[in-house]
Design goal:
single chain, about 425 residues, alpha/beta, Aspartate Aminotransferase, domain 1, Aspartate Aminotransferase, domain 2, 2 domains, seven-stranded mixed beta sheet, four-stranded mixed beta sheet, 14 helices, globular, Adenosylmethionine-8-amino-7-oxononanoate aminotransferase
Length: about 425
Amino acid sequence: MGRGERDRVLNPSWEALDREHVWHPYAAVPPAVPVHPVSRADGVRLTLTDGRRLVDGMSSWWAAIHGYNHPRLNRALTDQLGDMAHVMFGGLTHEPAVRLARTLAEMTGLPRVFLADSGSVAVEVAIKMAFQFTGRSRLLTVRGGYHGDTFGAMAVCDPVNGMHHLFSGALPKHVFADRPPAAFDDDYLTHLDETVAAHADELAAIIVEPVVQGAGGMHFYHPAYLRRLRELADGYGLLLIADEIATGFGRTGELFGCDHAGIRPDIMCLGKALTGGYMSLAATLCTERVAEGIGTLMHGPTFMGNPLASAVAGASLDLLAERPWRREVALIEEGLTRGLAEAAKAPGVKDVRVLGAIGVVETHEPVDVGRVQDVVMEHGVWLRPFGRLIYTMPPYSIGDDLGLITTAMTAAAFSIDPRA
């Protein structure tokens, strides 16, 4: 064994250690699709260890809305670190969390804020709130939804076509209405009326992703259906839970997905972009009526209200309020609509759709993830397709680099063999 080979055995690179020890999300061991090592992230670009620089069309799973390595967000973290990195939230409190809660309450109109670890946990907390408030333990949702990977959240994800069908036997059975259509349809309103009426006496709440169903298929639906669900919840004394984890903070062109329908939920879940992609943090918000009706909420994460996460979240929301995000998202919507028009002509493509800073190319058959990533990376772009979707949710600061993303997506669409 030569010296170089011996050094690699005794001191393996971190990339080699990744292959040996790390289990990546939604992947087997070893992963079927290559994992690409990143050494740095700045602005809207990722730098790989081999020197390639890629425009990130995913905002790190929709969270890094301001881009990476933002000096103001960096400063919020380092300033807070000088005071304290963490302190338990049971029996104690601190300014970053309190100020964040006030900001979220003012943004949403929901005055009570429970800070959680992640989006999935925020949904779990929302479900607990609904169950404690009503004394019932069944929910109504729509097919095609996705609400997270923990057990309570999985139970309201699509039970057939979702990624959690392997666990169906272990999950509680909730009520599912049909998937809402993209266009307005009176018949679907009737379907909602009948479905809720048939189960109203056993339901605690209705839970949906407002206007956009994210990981369940990047499906957009008409706001009228959300308004009808609000009316039905009010009429039957149910709670309405809005899962705004993917749709919150401007992604759809409105500050929250519910704003498209002009309604306010009883409970709202937030996450992803809350910290600008810096740290894991989520929140479950509710009305005063719900909070008072619950009393003691039986949940308490160890890292609830983490000062570092709260500080950077506060800075991210301040930055969002100051930047012209509506104009930025409108420009992204225009650029995606224009840039993806050609992709609709690819023989393997079923549909192309755009809403706000979301662009979707839906194919007839499931895509080869590794192959599509090779194509887009050759065009200097990072995307993470899934199922039959090649999609982008870029940072709001993407600017002229949006053209690189749409060019890469179009190339990927034409690389798909519809006969495969």
